[in-house]
Design goal:
Blueprint (H helix, E strand, L loop, with lengths): L4 E7 L12 H15 L3 E7 L7 E3 L4 E6 L1 H4 L10 H26 L3 E7 L4 H13 L6 E7 L10 H7 L1 E4 L2 H8 L6 E2 L14 H11 L4 E5 L8 H13 L5 E5 L5 H11 L4 E5 L5 H9 L5 E5 L4 H10 L2 E4 L8 H9 L3 E3 L14 E2 L5 H11 L3 H17 L2 H16 L4
Parallel strand pairs: 1-2, 1-5, 2-4, 5-6, 6-7, 7-8, 9-10, 9-13, 10-12, 11-12, 13-14, 14-15
Antiparallel strand pairs: 3-4
Helix pairs in contact: 3-4, 4-5, 7-10, 7-11, 8-9, 8-13, 12-14
């Protein structure tokens, strides 16, 4: 249990479905739900799910998935944020009554407390409505409600005064605590975690396959949405700068469908880089490695769905993974890279776990020359790279969900006035 709470409800737009997992939030919710279940908390994750999958599904030990807004998702098949406004309204109108009638009331009647954790601006209206309904039904004292901010998206749309009356605000890093403070919002910090299974690392043969596909060429990987905050232009400029230093790096890119992607690739061409779009016929490591082998472009735009295991193998095989965001609330990818045995390149905001040149490369600016210089210095230094990989793996061990849940338990005890 977590401070006397044997039941938990996670409210989120993103979840484990491919349809529902667009960014780091989907990864967080999936691993967080599993981790809660593994410590004995009966957990329900209510998220905007794939319309073609069951509305209710068991998801491992003590975890139940509830796919919401499926009738709307059927009209918006691209992903969870397709038709976002209508889904926000439907979620807020229908989730509170379900949570009260089907989860909270039975739990309270059994003498159990319920922990509700809502995520991001899309769930704010549902959180406020849930609080009001619990008070109306005289059930509010049996529920601890938290609302968690993973990033600043949608902050301008939030009535923080109303939200603060409904729930305690939490966030994932000191950087995000500062960002919330700019809106006059006090918050508790509970960092993200990674699942212990990630420490097993990808299969060795898969890593070897990717290293052979990269053919000894200095290799960089960058995965994420095409968004200016992700410092894509710094990555492109760094590759161009390294070429000017006489190196021949290859940047493997797996982005989204955002229009900003064309800005990124236009910059690459302007800097004299050869860009090639590469599609795979499958999403397994063999198909992806074969596709990489067949390209000698400076920038490979990889069009493939990369399962967790395949992505981890690519992280481990590359010389560095560029998680170099200019504004990063936490930096979950950096920890995933460390767990896989890779070397992350981080920015200098929310990645509080990153120690420059100890367990990661850290950039203070968005200047491609800074990144290029740090990468140039690391190439060929195998002993230094090994030390960084080992230190990163040790860091990943300190950021497991087990540790994050222990911290969460103390914060919940404080909020609810109970003992851990």
């Amino acid at each position: 249990m977590i401070a006397g709470h044997g039941v938990a409800v996670l409210l989120s737009f993103e979840g484990p479905d491919r349809y529902s997992s667009v960014g780091g939030l989907g990864t967080r919710e999936t691993s967080f739900a599993r981790a809660l279940g593994e410590v004995g908390v009966a957990t329900t994750l209510i998220f905007v799910g794939d319309p073609s999958l069951p509305a209710v599904e068991d998801f491992g030990q003590n975890v139940t998935l509830r796919r919401w807004c499926q009738w709307l998702s059927a009209f918006h098949p691209r992903n969870v944020y397709d038709g976002e406004e209508s889904k926000v309204r439907d979620y807020a109108a229908s989730v509170p009554a379900f949570v009260v009638d089907e989860i909270v009331r039975p739990a309270v009647e059994r003498g159990e407390r319920v922990l509700v954790i809502a995520e991001e601006w899309q769930t704010v209206d549902a959180t406020i409505a849930l609080d009001a309904l619990l008070r109306e039904r005289s059930l509010r004292d049996g529920v601890t409600m938290l609302w968690n901010a993973n990033n600043t998206y949608g902050f301008e749309r939030i009535d923080f005064a109303a939200l603060g009356r409904a729930a305690t605000v939490t966030t994932v890093s000191k950087y995000m605590k500062f960002e919330l403070g700019r809106f006059g919002v006090a918050s508790l910090v509970v960092p993200n975690g990674i699942h212990e299974s990630l420490l097993d690392g990808p299969p060795r043969e898969m890593v070897t396959r990717f290293r052979e596909a990269l053919r000894g060429r200095p290799s960089l990987v960058k995965v994420g949405r095409f968004d200016p905050d992700k410092n894509w232009l710094q990555a492109i400029d760094a590759v161009a700068e390294l070429r000017g230093m006489g190196l021949a790096p290859q940047l493997i890119v797996r982005g989204g469908r955002e229009a900003y992607g064309e800005v990124v690739f236009d910059r690459a061409r302007q800097r004299g880089l050869h860009v090639q779009r590469v599609e795979t016929s499958g999403d397994d490591s063999v198909a992806v490695a074969t596709a990489l082998t067949q390209s000698d472009a400076d920038v490979i735009h990889l069009q493939a769905f990369l399962p967790e295991e395949t992505l981890a193998a690519l992280y481990a095989a590359a010389d560095a993974v560029l998680a170099n965001s200019g504004k990063e609330p936490f930096g979950l990818v950096g920890l995933e890279v460390m767990a896989a045995g890779g070397i992350p390149v981080c920015g200098a905001t929310g990645e509080e776990y990153a120690e420059p040149f100890v367990n990661a490369i850290v950039c203070d600016t968005s200047d491609g020359r800074e990144l290029a210089e740090y990468l140039r210095a690391s190439y060929g230094d195998e002993r230094g790279a090994d030390r960084m990989r080992q230190a990163g793996f040790a860091t990943a061990n300190r950021y497991l969900w087990q540790h994050a849940i222990d911290m969460l338990a103390h914060k919940v005890a404080y909020v609810s006035g109970g003992a851990v």
